[in-house]
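> tool_call: predict_assembly(chains=two)
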Amino acid sequence: MEDIKEYRMEQLVDHIMKWSLWQFNSRAWDRENQNEGILTKTAQILCNEPVLLETPADKYYWAEAMVLARDFKINFPWLSEMEKHEIKQLIKSLKERIDYLTITGSLNEELTAQRY
Amino acid sequence: MPHHLFKCSECIPERKKHAVIKGEGEDLTSCLPLGYLNTIPGTISERGCAFCGAKHVIGTPMKDVIHLCHGPVGCTYDTWQTKRYLSDNDNFQFKYTFATDMKEKDIVFGAEKLLRQSIMEAFEAFPEIKRMSIYQTCASALIGDDINAVVKDIMAEMPEVDIFVCNSPGFAGPSQSGGHHVINIAWVNQKVGTYEPEIKSDYVINYVGEYNIQGDQEVMLDYFQRMGIQVLSTFTGNGSYDDLRGMHRAHLNVLECARSAEYICNELRVRYGTPRMDIDGFGFKPLSESLLKVGYFFGLEEKAQKVIDEEVARWKPELDWYARRLKGVKVCLWPGGSKLWHWANVIHEEMGVEVVSVYTKFGHQGDMEKGIARCGEGALAIDDPNELEGIEAIKKLKPDVIFTGVRPGEVAKKMRVQYLNAHAYHNGPYKGFEGWVRFARDIYNAVYSPIHQLSGLDISKDEISADKGFMTRQMISDVKIDTEEAALSEERPYTGDYDCVTKLRGKEYPLLEKSPSAN
């Protein structure tokens, strides 16, 4: 069971790495905001929950999340068979993995530069 | 860490950390070369300088501007017309180049008078142009000429003109990328917010990091305008100086080349709260999703989908014709910066080619992260390669075609490997749905060029058959496809026009929606 979860999560990671750009903004703090903003909204969209759209930044995260959620649904039909709490757990693991690959485990020496 | 030291660089061991091979199970936490560092002494880099990065890449695509280089004439000449950034005002910025033409006596006695004289002469020669960019060079920077003081005086004397100063001499960074940074920040500091543009729509974007190479920008503008979006400015291809002064009024910054222009988007986000949205204008799926997410941002997703459906229906059969014949072709993707990640995955997914190597001349580690993430296992990733390393990689990887610039491209040709110009294109535009088919056509024409049949023969010793003619491209390419299956499909070779850009210039678009409260 854990293997399947891991395998599915890695499929989502691979999809993001191959098709998305938002996870690679140039500074660590920026990547944290991007990963949090977009993947939180992706989980909400996949779970049919309301999404906060108060600021231009919210709208931006939502637009990225809409495309990602749409892609996930098309490419990974097993998502439609999952319960909401399972989807949330999956996206939580996904975010931890993306954070690791792009921030905490990243070898990019420019991530901690103080200015853009 | 799967570092790779080229045999030719064993005498420069520091080079080892600038190349990696993506092995099985490798990810970005174990596989990333160094990047954006000073070139190691002893390695002959293919990079450009920071002056070139500022002027040639970003400054000069602005169309209604006299671009004056304060320095020796060589700095200007060598950054002129080598990249095909077109404009819809008869290519003013492309046809003319301007220099103060500094000589030894100016280095000794100072060149501010010469600069002043050159500015006045240029405005007199082109009285219809009232905007100017002045670019610092190593020579004028080292003698300490105060360009800003000269410009301040002239703008006081001539209130009808506006002048931008770009202080990015050649030594202002490890590569052209240093110049990209300088000019981004200089523009936002000096010019953004000094002009109030006319807002005609509720949906307003700046299109950033787009240089209208062979018409890329005009193709993308067509899509945005069909969606009902006002493109307030383009930074900087086919862009207007005053429009770019009004960038602060857009609702969204749509960013294409993050390598050269993320800085201004980041600053606009901090200073004006305008979100930055990175997009891919290359490839059917990335482009479709890019239009769709811009559509979602404004609530225009249905209009975006309509554009996508029309374009895909028109061009997909033509892409498929080439993709069938390009499957398995080995490619070295060796551009300057952003195209290594724009293209790395999508050319494999949509054309079936195999990317065996990526390199970047001036990219940062962030570009390599994107590129390596999008490559398959076994790909060789190289930062700031020198010519010998390129030759060694070609011998080792045996690619069918290389996407790169003119200088390394000519080296590849001498080794009987075809190359496509990744910077200025062969028969672009390459952006857009039609553009992507044109790119596929160029790859096809390169890989299956009949010249390969002759280029390997030495008429002084090889026997030349006189009773056989050339094999055409299709005779060569179709050997490996299922021709019956292909004949049953709707696939066809490219049917577009030689010039697919000029006709867009007179096109009419639906009236833009604008609510009374829109500012």
